[in-house]
User: Fold these one by one.
Assistant:
Number 1:
Amino acid sequence: MNENIERCLIAENEIKRRIDVLANEILEEMKEKEFMVIFLLKGALVFAADLCRRLPVALEIESLNVSSYKGGMESSGVIEFLDTRFPDVKGRSVLLIDDILDTGRTLHTVSNKLNEMGVSQLRRCVLLSKDKKRDVDVGVEHVAFTIGDEFVVGYGLDYKGKYRNLPYVGILKKDSI
Ligand code: 5GP
Ligand code: MG
């Protein structure tokens, strides 16, 4: 796996240290002490697992399966909800976690849906935010790292379904694409 990586962008220990700081920020901000975490599958799985274990409150953890990328390198622009049931969020304080903010469409669509369903407080958190112009504006309260506009894998993020288990964030070699 590592032989397909051109370079490491964010090292494992750097992620770990940043998550400790981020967890404290989130704890200070969430009004309800017993909030619900909703993470987006599959990309946010690794980040959410590490972040949630740094939040020493009685969390409820839910996931939503949404698709936008279809496994390649370009977002399809259309966000589909793939679950048949939706978590009961009415009146709840929710922390929405995703892997990366790119065009903004995913977080925008999911945020709208959660607001329609009557969440009482919504905060968003992403591991990575690409420094670029978004297709849609979306406010994200907690960003672990801002990166350039390049395609990354690892720590949950995939290329054609692979590399999610890479413990750091990296850039693929050209000949691995
Ligand atoms: P958005 O809807 O903001 O365009 O994109 C969000 C989704 O696109 C993320 O949840 C992620 O699945 C995918 N994505 C965006 N940029 C990247 C990237 O650089 N690498 C990978 N592996 N996925 C990305
Ligand atoms: Mg994703």
Number 2:
Amino acid sequence: MQGVDPAWLPDEVFRPIGTRRTLIRGSGPLVDTVHGEVAGACDRFGGRVERDASPGPFDLVLELTGADASEGFTFERGDGCTTVTATGQSGLLYGLFHVVRLGEDAFRKQRPRETHGPALALRMLDHWDNVAVHPVMGQVERGYAGGSLFWQDGRARGELLGRVRAYGRLLAACGINAVAVNNVNVHATEAHLLTDRLGEVADIAGALRPYGVRTHLSVTFAAPIVLGGLSTADPLDDDVRGWWAEASARVYEAIPDFGGYVVKADSEGQPGPFAYGRSHADGANMLAAALEPHGGTVHWRAFVYNHRQDWRDRTTDRARAAHDHFVPLDGEFADNAVLQVKHGPMDFQVREPVSPLIGAMPRTRLAVELQATQEYTGQQRHVCWLGPMWSEVLRFRADGECSVGEVARGGLVAVSNVGDDPFWTGHPLAQANLYTFGRLAWQPHADPHQILDEWILLTFGTGPAAGLRAVLDGSWRTYEKYTAPLGVGWMVQPGHHYGPSVDGYEYSPWGTYHFADRDGIGVDRSAATGSGFAGQYAKPWAEMYESPDTCPDELLLFFHHMSYGHMLHSGKTVIQHIYDTHFEGVEEVEAARDVWASLVDLVDRARHARVAERFEEQLRSAREWRDQVNSYFLRKSGVPDAHGRRIY
Ligand code: GCW
């Protein structure tokens, strides 16, 4: 696309294929896509592609050997020929992108047959995109990459769907196979996508389909009322059930491979089953029943908590809410209902423990939701590569035995960080988060650093690779250092969530407090003396988090209220840790900015300039964080910095 960053698919990565002779065997729309990719590469680089029974020899054979829905493929190299086989069309497409990632290596040495396939069947991005620009949230809620990729001027991007197709291509190349195209907060205009504006959703689905990406839709629980004119949305009411069944049948007439619904119910003001005295299983199962005849799935979000809490009320702990609401419903959800759980118990802070709900619903299909859009991690003005955080989450032994990556049978979901920005993600380096998400969803136990290397080499080539690694690798920990300390979270400006405000959420109704006073800081969530949240975990974790002696430093203030003089496992006091990390964090941003500046001749101009400009803002903001946080705690505690540095 003219003027659009090719991201991890610059033409150059197709050179090894485009200079060779390829045979493609099999037929179907995705095989055509594979053919189109290879033919395009050959046009650019002078190679040749044939279909079906052409005489050889060939350097690469891509062969469809079946007609199933499998996404896996085999890869091998022998007798001077590289062969990819797949029994399903999308498997062939993923096999092609595997060859692209390997580059020249795919054609070098002999390789015995390897089998590849995704660990998780559903690898999905949720777009919080509105069709109409929302007066407060803008077009993309928590979006930092311009307007929506799907919706423009109040409609689906008609002739611009080429951009959507290009997006589908990028997603396929990192293994993502599903997209929800609108915000989970479903406003009045967007509610109609389910019915009279379905054609627009079908257009988007049509643009994504050639790359094996299925379309999902966020729907409002109140749809039977707001769209159907019924007087109730009670999930046990026959008319309501009938309405959903008919609406869903029409969706499948328009979009035969439609993925299903995403629902945010009884959450932050969205309607839900509580209004009718029904449970969330009743609500989810009603939608599951409507989708079931067509093979669809409902993704029901577990983000249910009291957002009108009185800050004086110390008996309510928001961290407990999802577990309290949903664990009693384990086993009640239909097979095609997936409970979608945020990875942490609060809300995408830079550091949270893994949600205890994830290990506590063995009889429910769970999907785990991550946030690629950097709402609380620098809003794509700061470099913050989230791979290590996500990897820690996915490897965490949720129930004491199985990892989150294994427990998430319903899939892995990320809130998208993409918009209509020419670099896709606002900050060009935030593309690494999107790519890493896709690859981790394919293989949750993959080494995130290898994934980062892969992204760097595809996107930038070898020249600036070492510099990019230096800039990105530790960037999440750097961000953590200069923002809220030791897992306590939240010290952000209310509303937009950018920049520091230590007490911004301290006296608010959102259930997000740090309780700092002159003696100490943190939230007592122990079972013995606090909210009892620590007791929601499976055995080894419940015990570990219960005591400050065994709680890991980085989560200490999430679980305990500690004095400033408390000695951490690191050998520093809480207060000295706060000072030190805030000074270090800013120094690390300065160093990263300098590394980036040194890459000026190795990175294309526009991209280099965009990142350089964002680094100035990151540095300004990091200094603001450092000085506000350090000054706040010096004033509260009266304890001076051991190194006598400047605090205001
Ligand atoms: O993190 C919060 C965001 C809201 C979002 C909500 C959710 C879509 O601040 O903007 O609403 O989470 O996940 O539903």
